[in-house]
Amino acid sequence: MIPLIKIDDKELPILIHGTSPFIGAGQFGTRAREYYRRFYQNPTLMSQFFVYFSSKCYPCIHIIPYPPIIEAMEIASELRSINVIATVEDKMDLELIARFDPAIVFLHASITDRMDRKEIEGFSEACNELGYTLGVATHNPGETIPVLEKIEGIRAYMVPINPLGLYMSPSFDSTLIAIEYARKNDKFIFGMKTLAGGRINPYKGFPFALNYAHAIVVGFTELKQIDEACSLVKKIVEENIHQV
């Protein structure tokens, strides 16, 4: 199994199965439409990836409250127990993911990056009432994190991290500085876009990301990618231990 981290009283793996390819996210360019047709319209196929990852690596999936993703998660959950982290856009979405008892709930970057303190604090209160650990995702970490560190209750950030600096706004350097600032304040960092939308391979992306993030969230489009990713992450951790 994959090494674990502990956030408050919850254990999570340092490699988590993501869903960005399944929804045909824009960072995948010309492949996005193909991924959307192949996965988003086929919850059964998505569930097979969830179950395979859970058996090969660790049962933890990052979900978003889109109907096909929820259906895929329900199918997978019938076959085995699976932990969940989630990203949502507002308080109303919390009802859609409640059945999976998410370990962490992240506010979507499109909301976070507006830096509306009242809005974020309201979301924090809703999560607290339900007993959820609060996280926020951001596409603009270099500017957003320093501001949000003044808001109580945030335990984790999900941020783009890759050696190309793609999607790391407003700049590569400001993002890394913000990450270090958050970590010094005992916040947990979850890396996303670690392969820069498929532009680099895991052997370049994962070691770099795990140098800054406590865990990484990665989407897969082939089952063999899961085997490769799990093996690589274990190797990275072992090498880091030997270097200490």
Description:
This protein is of the alpha/beta class. It has one domain: TIM Barrel (Alpha-Beta Barrel), CATH 3.20.20.100. The chain is built from ten helices and ten strands. The protein has an eight-stranded parallel beta sheet. It has a two-stranded antiparallel ribbon with strand order 1-2. The chain is globular. The model has no long low-confidence stretch (mean pLDDT 95).
What's the gist of this structure?
This protein has 244 residues and is of the alpha/beta class. It contains ten helices and ten strands. Strand 8 (154-160), helix 8 (172-184) and strand 9 (188-192) form a beta-alpha-beta unit.
What are the key terms here?
TIM Barrel
CATH class term: Alpha Beta
Strand order of the largest sheet: 3-10-9-8-7-6-5-4
Structurally, how many domains make up the residues? 1
- Which CATH architecture? Alpha-Beta Barrel
CATH topology call: TIM Barrel
Write the topology of this structure.
Layout: E1 4-7, E2 10-13, E3 15-17, H1 32-40, H2 43-56, E4 60-63, H3 67-79, E5 83-88, H4 94-97, E6 104-107, H5 109-112, H6 117-130, E7 133-137, H7 141-148, E8 154-160, H8 172-184, E9 188-192, H9 202-210, E10 215-218, H10 223-243
Parallel strand pairs: 3-10, 4-5, 5-6, 6-7, 7-8, 8-9, 9-10
Antiparallel strand pairs: 1-2
Helix pairs in contact: 2-3, 2-10, 7-8, 9-10
